[in-house]
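User: Second chain of the day. Same drill as before.
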Amino acid sequence: MQNRNSGIRRRGRPTVTDAPLRRAELVAIAADIFRTHGYEGASIDMIAAAAQVSKATIYARFGNKASLFAAVGLHSVASMRSDLDHIETRGRPPQDVLFDFAIRITGEVAQPDRIALLRMAIAAKEQFPELAHALHDHIADTISPLTRYLAALKAEGAARMDDPAQMAAHFINLANGGLRFLLTDDFADDGYRQSWSRQVATLFLEGIQARR
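Assistant: Same format as last time:
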């Protein structure tokens, strides 16, 4: 059976085609180390040993531990963008589309690995404020599929709002339940997520629907 780290074991300069893959593998291994030991407890030595690469390789690609942790956080957030990009919006009732956005968002924040990384990012905010800003900006980009959908509703006259990007941010906060996703395990229950997402879609739609 192939070892999960086998892609990183190859020595020498990576080719143009395999360099992105090897970087992704290194980020995944670093994420495991950070989740297990926390930001302060994790070290470049640990990550290099787990990935079976030299410390020089990690420093050459990421610069330092803080930059590597930022790469881990950004990679985690980016996967949500991929999920949201695949939501079909054309020819569907807004209620159904918004439900799909809500259920995907709550599904992402229900993942224990992602919650652990977000908690670490929050804890490291004072020490690395630029990391918190980078994650915040990346989250805004991540929900751009929702922003585009809301902008389309506004253009069609089906919704009223001043700033679709701001409304998308309000939607994701409503879907996440504020701090609920950080403080409880409610979203781990699929039935709860379904019910919650239906309520979110209904409440949000009632607030933005154009009055006839």
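The domain at 69-208 is CATH 1.10.357.10 (Tetracycline Repressor; domain 2).

User: Great, on to the next one.
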